[in-house]
């Protein structure tokens, strides 16, 4: 009986998480579309599990100057986009650390990611996907088992 109840609770939790994730994606799409109507948008990401994840949207004009910036930062699916002031008029490819000192560390990392993503796209490259924090954990656990298994069979890395 306990096992069935546990499965039901996990299934309900999964469905609720999926629905909240869907609402958050709709929220992202709304803000991205609003900014995209007036120009290009650079996106910066800093995913996290325990600490606040951060997402930045930077609207750019044809001179690569930031016209509007928004960010979403938080641990839960209830996080919402907020205006990010202080970057208007700055060229994205010329942002320096001095321009970012007034922002927290996670927001700064997301802004640097947006700048790097912009540079890669401008050069005609393809943006590498950032693995989710959960995937990082899975890969680390897998590599621990793979290394042990490789040593047992006489294969050395």
Description:
With 157 residues, the chain is an alpha+beta fold. The chain has one domain. It is 46% helix and 17% strand. A four-stranded antiparallel sheet has the order 1-2-3-4. A hairpin with a 5-residue loop joins β2 and β3 (66-74). It is globular, with a radius of gyration of 20 Å. The model has no long low-confidence stretch (mean pLDDT 83).
Brief descriptors of the model:
about 160 residues, alpha+beta, 4-stranded antiparallel sheet, globular
Enumerate the strands of the largest sheet in spatial order, edge to edge or round the barrel.
Answer: 1-2-3-4
Low-pLDDT regions: none
Q: Into which percent range does the helicity of residues fall?
A: 40-55%
Q: Radius of gyration in whole Å, from Cα?
A: 20 Å
Overall outline = globular
Distance from first to last alpha carbon: 47 Å
DSSP strand count: 4
Strand content: 15-25%
> Major sheet: size, sense and barrel closure?
4 strands, antiparallel
| Order of SSEs | HEEEEHH
Nearest-integer average pLDDT: 83
Number of helices: 3
Structural class: alpha+beta
The tally of structural domains comes to 1
């Amino acid at each position: 009986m306990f096992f069935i109840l546990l499965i039901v609770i996990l299934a309900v939790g999964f469905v609720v998480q999926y629905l909240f994730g869907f609402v958050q994606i709709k929220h992202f799409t709304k803000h991205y579309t609003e900014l995209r109507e007036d120009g290009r948008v650079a996106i910066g990401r800093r995913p996290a599990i325990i600490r606040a994840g951060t997402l930045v949207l930077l609207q750019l004009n044809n001179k690569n100057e930031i016209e509007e910036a928004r960010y979403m930062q938080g641990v839960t699916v209830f996080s919402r986009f907020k205006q990010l002031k202080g970057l208007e008029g700055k060229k994205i490819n010329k942002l320096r650390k001095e321009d970012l000192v007034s922002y927290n560390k996670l927001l700064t990392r997301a802004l640097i990611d947006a700048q790097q993503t912009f540079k890669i796209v401008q050069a005609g490259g393809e943006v590498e996907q950032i693995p989710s924090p959960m995937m990082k954990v899975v890969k680390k656990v897998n590599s621990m088992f793979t290394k042990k298994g490789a040593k047992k069979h006489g294969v050395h890395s």
